[in-house]
Write a structure and sequence with these properties.
The structure holds 2 protein chains of 2 kinds. Chain A is mainly alpha-helical. Chain A has a domain of 201 residues. Chain A is built from 12 helices and 2 strands; from the N terminus they run ααααββαααααααα. Chain A has a two-stranded antiparallel ribbon. In chain B, 51% of the residues are buried. In chain B, strands 6-7-8-3-9-10 form a 6-stranded mixed β-sheet, with helices on both faces. A 4-stranded antiparallel β-sheet of chain B has the order 2-1-4-5, covered by helices on one side. Chain B has a single domain, classed as Rossmann fold. Chain B is an alpha/beta fold. Classes of the chains: A mainly alpha, B alpha/beta. At the A-B interface, helix 6 and helix 7 of A face helix 3 of B.
Amino acid sequence: MVEFLQFTLSGISFGMIYAAIALSLVLIWRGTRLLNFAQGGMAMFTTYVAIEVIYHTGSYWAGFVVALAAGIVLGTAAELTVIRPSLGKPELNSVIITIGLLILLEGLAGIFYGGQYRSFPAAFSVTGLRVGSTALGVSRFDVFVAAAVLAAALLLAVGFKYTSAGLRMRAAAFNATVARLSGIRVARVITVGWALAGLLGALAGVLVSPSTFLYPNSMDTIFVFGFTAAVIGGLDSPAGAVIGGLLLGVVLSYAGGYLGSQVTALVALGILVVILMIRPAGIFSSAQVRRV
Amino acid sequence: MNSPAGAEGAQGTQGTQGAQRSQGGQGGQGVRAGGAAALAVEDLVAGYGEVLALDNVTITADAASITAVLGANGAGKTTLLRAISGMVRPRSGRVLLDGADRAGHSPEDMARAGIAHVPEGQGVIPELTVEENLRLGMMSWPGIAPRRADRAAALAEAYERFGVLADRRRKLAATLSGGERQMLVIARALVARPRVLLLDEPSLGLAPRIMTQVMDTVVRLSQESGITTVLVEQNARAALAIADRGVVLNLGRVVAAADAKALAADVALRHHYLGF
């Protein structure tokens, strides 16, 4: 039972990171119907920026904030320079451009920082918390990870639901034609979506790197898990992305804990295939509402 | 062409009903600060790829009047509205709003200039609530952050005009019937405080009783708010009954433009182009 609790809490912590990546993918998907394969690469790059800032200033929080800002800048720059010119052309063009962007970022990281594994500091203690003599299997840092992603998701949800900017983003995502005819500058809304996605990716990068080390390909597996989470929840649904991330994190934690860590990628792939077969729009997608 | 209401007379014919409405509608709450606007399209050419949809189209719509644009499928009616609102970039020609040429401007800019375009059958966003759909009408208002009181007043006015929407304001627009959805898009256009309203097939797919309600609403908006309305309709009889002027398109060209009553009385023209 204790083991089960430990696996569950650990799964929630990792699941929130998958949720952050999934949320960033959803933000871009809703605006442009494009899967951003460079999302993991962007997160890796901003994490390198964070580690450089931490190295030079000695402040974790300076690195944390600069990484988030770098995520916004990188997301905005990517949209304005390589994505916008490809919109309105065959969808495959945009997909290949994001793959190219991933290769470029991973190549640049290798050139600037080398290919060796680098450790990344954690904001809080990574020593496991205990209740009495029972180890919970999570640390203060894991709690911070869950709280940070949850706060970001809640801020986004509130912003989407209750602000004029959120309404603009939702309208542009659901029906760009009506949005434009209403006076909403959809191109600008898409840029904001990429900026927010860059921020969420950067958050995921600095949160996961203390557990995985940092190297040019370090976010590839995290991206695949984040993508799986987004597919589980539905690429159209921000709430689905968070729930999908949590579900995937917990299931993979059970699989790794009870069956061995070598099977986690296989389990994630199996879940992806099953979801795509039985409910390709995802569990929480609003696609059915749109067909009315 | 043997019609007395030919395109040649389009420029000089004034809609008398429109002039009367113009006087009565200047103080309408639905119109933004600039008041009702005259719309003119001159020698407009537009198309899709190699297909020419509009071939030197010229029409005028007096301020605060209703102009019905009629014609068979493929005549270019929808493309005309899309070219005016910026959804289709004209190849040449002018779109004049109170004399200022706005041809080729983006849909966002046209909306901010006071042109509200209600597209055929897709004006509602079903994933948003009724009130959120209405709030989209405020996105073209001048300024960055409209005052809360102005927003509330615009919504209150919309709910007062369309009581059925007030009862459903928190419901998803997906739950509305076809007629209610049409009311919603017209209400949203009104919230935008437009100077020109472009309506594309507002009666499409509606039961006759609901269609009558929609047409009555269009007339009421024109009379009370002084909005210049361009109405594209397959139902030529219903459109001419409420319009001040009519324009008949055929294969992308204007074949007749005159007072709506004159068009309705032209038996040869009706039989040849309008099917009644």
